Backbone:
């Protein structure tokens, strides 16, 4: 690793364009063509780029968010990533900050890497926030193994909209105190392992029904309501000295003097609210600037990059027009404005690349996730309806077990044929243990189920004596008439250790201690 000069030594040596280059965090893709890799190496060299944010591939990135292109599986992605990081670091005159979204581990972006539970699962745990601390710490250790310095997590959005298409299971829940406490535990665990964090998506993406990857969400709440709820976790973590805040693409007129402008380019929201009123002194990073909520409105190259910087963002994530962005910022910004952001960024780099931290950051292998996930499974499993006694009595019946688990790319005709077979199989059954794994975590299109499948489940609930275990997003329960079951249990994840935990609970070997962190 190249040495990093101190801010004091470097501030007079860099010309303005070189300082501005540090503001840019272009996307880097683990599974990319050699031609594209060389283009990024050239970009790093030419423009003194300050940081990179890694994604799995171009097919999985923000502009392809709904999966219109096929994502190619690469079992060796982690090794490819490590090799690319070394290559890009070699291309840079000074050390690059390497970032990634790893909210539930490197598995969010990389095959065959440790997968930890979603935030909503952690939200079900009662009081034992030391488990969430360990999750943050383990994920950070995996980041270090890969050569990553910055986990762009956690989400501290309060998810109080069951139809939210993009946050949902990424949120710790709907209670502001719980969200703040659990997010702080995650941040502290991450920081203890020597990795940076970024709380997101300021000023709060929870109460939206529009995906900001595709359009600009509008939040029509009063400033008083937002301060009392959405902004509460942000203020709590800012007061604790969090490394950085990521600003989302949200239209919040109450916070921007009535203007329906995206928060990511709003001076009122970033400089006025976040900096001046809430007292945040650290790094402000934009959400990905190629997201359609904002990018489609600014076709002139460099214009959006300038607007985002002028609004108060220090780092411009997923900026696509770097040459033009540097030129426009240099043309329009005053020297002190540039120096303020450059100083913040360089001092953040100093905290990462000092010799003491580099020695501490040596990580030889990926974490073992099963032992921690097993404990989390035991502490999160939640009873929505019924009781352990009812389940114990159910076990004494001549029940049958029915499993609904499939993948969303199955052919609809086969799904309907299977459904017809299942209907015949259970026609004479009175007691059914129903195990459901929704095909997807997002609420779009009934969590991936056909309407006929949801109708089939609800028909069983009404006609039979049913005990239900659901291995997925608990908002799925909003589609079920679950209060008509004998008992309904939320298991949250479909990992094997969670399946084993559900079996132990059903057999009476484990008591429920989790609590649903959202209302359904």
Residues:
């Amino acid at each position: 690793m190249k040495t990093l000069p101190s801010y004091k030594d470097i501030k007079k040596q860099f010309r303005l364009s070189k300082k501005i280059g540090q503001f840019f965090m272009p996307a880097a893709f683990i599974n990319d063509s050699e031609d594209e890799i060389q283009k990024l190496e050239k970009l790093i060299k030419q423009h003194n780029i300050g940081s990179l944010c890694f994604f799995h591939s171009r097919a999985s990135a923000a502009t392809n968010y709904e999966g219109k292109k096929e994502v190619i599986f690469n079992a060796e992605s982690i090794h490819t990533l490590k090799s690319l990081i070394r290559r890009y670091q070699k291309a840079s005159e000074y050390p690059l900050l390497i970032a990634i979204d790893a909210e539930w581990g490197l598995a969010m972006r990389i095959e065959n890497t440790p997968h930890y539970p979603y935030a909503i699962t952690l939200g079900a745990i009662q009081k034992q926030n030391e488990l969430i601390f360990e999750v943050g710490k383990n994920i950070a250790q995996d980041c270090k193994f890969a050569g990553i310095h910055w986990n762009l997590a956690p989400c501290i959005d309060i998810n109080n909209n069951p139809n939210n298409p993009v946050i949902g299971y990424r949120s710790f829940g709907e209670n502001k105190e719980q969200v703040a406490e659990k997010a702080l535990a995650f941040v502290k665990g991450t920081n203890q392992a020597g990795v940076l964090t970024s709380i997101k998506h300021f000023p709060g993406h929870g109460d939206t029904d529009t995906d900001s990857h595709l359009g600009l969400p509008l939040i029509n709440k009063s400033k008083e309501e937002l301060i009392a709820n959405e902004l509460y976790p942000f203020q709590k973590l800012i007061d604790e000295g969090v490394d950085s805040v990521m600003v989302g693409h949200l239209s919040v007129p109450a916070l921007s003097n009535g203007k329906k402008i995206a928060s990511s380019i709003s001076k009122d929201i970033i400089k006025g609210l976040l900096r001046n009123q809430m007292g945040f002194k650290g790094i402000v990073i934009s959400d990905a600037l190629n997201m359609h909520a904002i990018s489609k409105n600014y076709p002139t190259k460099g214009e959006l990059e300038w607007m985002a910087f002028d609004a108060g963002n220090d780092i411009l994530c997923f900026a696509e027009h770097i040459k033009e962005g540097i030129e426009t910022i240099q043309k329009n910004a005053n020297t002190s404005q540039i120096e303020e952001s450059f100083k913040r960024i360089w001092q953040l780099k100093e905290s990462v690349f000092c010799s003491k931290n580099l020695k501490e950051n040596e990580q030889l292998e990926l974490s073992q996730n099963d032992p921690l996930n097993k404990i989390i499974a035991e502490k999160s499993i939640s009873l929505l309806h019924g009781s352990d006694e009812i389940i114990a009595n159910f076990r004494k019946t001549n029940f049958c077990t029915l499993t609904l688990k499939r993948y969303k790319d199955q052919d609809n005709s086969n799904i309907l044929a299977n459904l017809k077979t299942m209907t015949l199989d259970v026609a004479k059954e009175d007691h059914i243990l129903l195990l459901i794994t929704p095909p997807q975590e997002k609420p779009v299109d009934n969590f991936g189920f056909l309407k006929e499948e949801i109708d089939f489940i609800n028909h069983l609930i009404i006609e039979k004596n049913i005990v239900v275990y659901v291995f997925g997003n608990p908002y799925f329960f909003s589609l079920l008439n679950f209060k008509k079951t004998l008992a309904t249990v939320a298991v949250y994840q479909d990992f094997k250790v969670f399946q084993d935990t559900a079996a132990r609970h059903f057999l009476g070997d484990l008591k429920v201690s989790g609590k649903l962190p959202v209302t359904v």
Residues 335-353 form the longest helix (19 residues). The chain has a mean pLDDT of 94. The chain has 20 helices and 15 strands.
